[in-house]
Design goal:
single chain; 537 residues; alpha/beta; Substrate Binding Domain Of Dnak, Chain:A, Domain 2; Rossmann fold; 3 domains; six-stranded parallel beta sheet; five-stranded parallel beta sheet; 19 helices; 45% helix; binds iron/sulfur cluster
Length: 537
């Protein structure tokens, strides 16, 4: 195996035996083979001149499945690959696609051993030139994140053919000999499609569940047994809340599901207790002390410990061998959480980790409702600077940088955040500025879209020509491929001088880093004091 798609890549170079994330070598190789299968379908669909919704849905599901901490299940991966091969050959037959095709469009296998053998030959390192590999993988990781966001929208009944078209165009492009300029153009176009996709998901979420509102979220525990739900899938959240109503079981969010607390449609449920714990990487401790069942709707799952493995349920694209999987809803149907609820009733209530409340719900609609207050605060000088500290959290020790950075920021600054990076500072008492909290949490990582809408509104209000003239600096943390997508979206919107940490991605070759530095001023981070001096200058 060779994998360098996330921030935990071994020695910031790449995992070669097993993943730091817990992914085994065979699993990593099969994920590469699934990517190869998607490339094959994309090549064939391009030749056929059509991307129908069956292809679009398959590509979305498959790319999402290969994101860090989604699927650890080899047999499931092989099943998805087999479905892909059948789909590829169906398109070929239907549209008479033939002739000289790339190997990804013609290979086949039957047994598990054959799939594993093929998988070894089609990984990331099959592209020998370091810079070509870097640009191809940067594009693929951006497309993976787009696929994840598109998948959440599809679940709510929202889709856009233009997104499917670009996923196919982008994946097919990685099989072609393109110039550096052509590859860079594909990457930047992915940023544009990322914005479209995040906007679509924002529409799907807000039209279905209302606009997030300022909300105080309880971080303590109650006396009833509970179910903990994590990930990003709001439809699962809705159905779980409905099915647990009146059962005596409370529902708590974990990790990236925290922002579900901000939606009006969910706040009405009395048994929606609040949020338990922190970001994804602390789940091995926090799932143990929760005492009740846990539902993982999307990433980030880490290999469950035996002490709580029998209480974990996966669903959607998430899978782990030996962990119970809740099957997908049929068209117009619902997911059945009855087994989870039955288990919860036999469990003890959660062990208390902390008490108190945290505040969130500052997505674009809510912040724009406060626009006058915010603009006045900037004009009066009460607010000097906004710092976008969105993105990811992770287990690397150096991420305490972000807590220290937040603590040391001057009191006339406001942090804009989205994604699980917030857990590094959302429980600090950073106070407020004239009633505006100093940490404004817009929601999940896809809600970085809200931060963009807010920035564009401020640009309009202050009558600026360039988004970079706003008093906003970007100190963004990344972990997995959805964060790459958000980064590409920011670049597409013209945002410059983004600081990316805690380390620059291993998949960026020195020459590609050079392109990003020259064109966008992207930089890393160093230490809090130097970075504060540099960023707030
Ligand atoms: S996803 Fe990250 S940690 Fe896992 S194998 Fe790949 S680079 Fe390593
Ligand atoms: S914020 Fe980052 S680590 Fe957390 S779920 Fe989103 S992309 Fe993954």
């Amino acid at each position: 195996m060779f994998c360098y798609q996330c921030q935990e890549a071994l020695k910031n170079q790449g995992c070669r035996v097993n993943g730091m994330c817990g992914k085994k070598g065979d699993t990593a190789n099969l994920q590469d083979l699934l990517i190869y299968t998607v490339k094959g379908i994309s090549v064939v669909a391009q030749k056929a001149g059509t991307v129908d919704s069956e292809v679009g849905h398959y590509v979305v599901k498959s790319l999402f499945t290969t994101i860090t901490n989604v699927s650890f299940d080899d047999d499931r991966l092989i099943d998805i690959i087999k479905q892909g091969l059948a789909l590829r050959d169906k398109i070929k037959g239907k549209y008479n696609v033939s002739g000289d095709l790339h190997d990804c469009a013609v290979w086949n296998a039957g047994t598990k051993a054959e799939f594993l053998k093929k998988a070894e030959a089609v990984g990331v390192l099959a592209t020998e030139n370091e810079d070509v590999r870097s640009l191809r993988e940067l594009l693929i990781y951006g497309l993976k994140g787009i696929a994840a966001y598109a998948d959440h929208a599809i679940v709510l009944g929202f889709e856009d053919k233009a997104i499917f078209d670009y996923l196919v165009e982008g994946m097919a492009s990685t099989t072609k000999e393109l110039s550096v300029d052509e590859m860079v153009a594909k990457v930047l176009k992915a940023g544009e499609v990322a914005v479209t996709t995040m906007a679509l998901l924002d529409k799907a979420n807000t039209e279905t569940y209302g606009n997030p509102e300022i909300t105080e979220v309880n971080i303590g525990v109650g006396k009833n047994p509970g179910i903990l739900i994590s990930g990003h899938d709001l439809k699962d959240m809705e159905e779980l809340l409905k099915q647990t109503q009146g059962t005596g079981v409370d529902v708590y969010t974990h990790g990236e599901m925290l922002p579900a607390n901000y939606y009006p449609a969910f706040k009405k449920y009395d048994h929606f207790f609040g949020n338990y714990g922190n970001a994804w990487w602390l789940q091995d401790k926090e799932f143990a002390t929760f005492n009740g069942p846990v539902v993982m709707t999307t990433n980030c799952l880490i290999p469950p410990k035996d002490s709580y493995k029998d209480r974990v349920f996966t669903t959607g694209n998430v899978a782990f061998p030996g962990v119970k999987h809740i099957v997908d809803r049929k068209a117009d149907g619902i997911k059945d959480f009855s087994e989870v609820i039955a288990l919860a009733k036999k469990c003890q209530s959660p062990t208390e980790l902390e008490t108190g409340k945290i505040v969130g719900g500052f997505a674009h609609n809510q912040v724009l409702a406060l626009a006058d207050k915010v603009v006045d605060a900037v004009k009066s000088g009460a607010v000097k600077q906004f710092i976008v500290m969105a993105g990811c959290d992770g287990r690397q020790k150096g991420r305490s940088y972000y807590t220290e950075f937040a603590e040391k920021l001057p009191k006339d600054t406001i942090i804009l955040t989205a994604g699980c990076a917030k857990y590094r500072y959302n429980k600090l008492d950073l106070g407020d500025i004239g009633g505006i909290p100093r940490v404004l949490d817009a929601g999940q990582c896809n809600d970085c879209y809200s931060l963009v809408v807010i920035a564009l509104k401020l640009k309009e209000v202050f009558e600026l020509d360039d988004i970079n003239d706003l008093p906003i600096v970007y100190n963004v943390a990344w972990y997995e491929q959805k964060a790459v997508t958000v980064l590409l979206a920011l670049l597409h919107l013209g945002v410059k001088n983004i600081h990316l940490g805690p380390t620059l991605p291993a998949f960026l070759s020195p020459a590609v880093v050079d392109v990003l530095v020259k064109n966008f001023g992207i930089g890393g981070i160093t230490n809090v004091d130097d970075d504060l001096a540099k960023m707030l200058n």
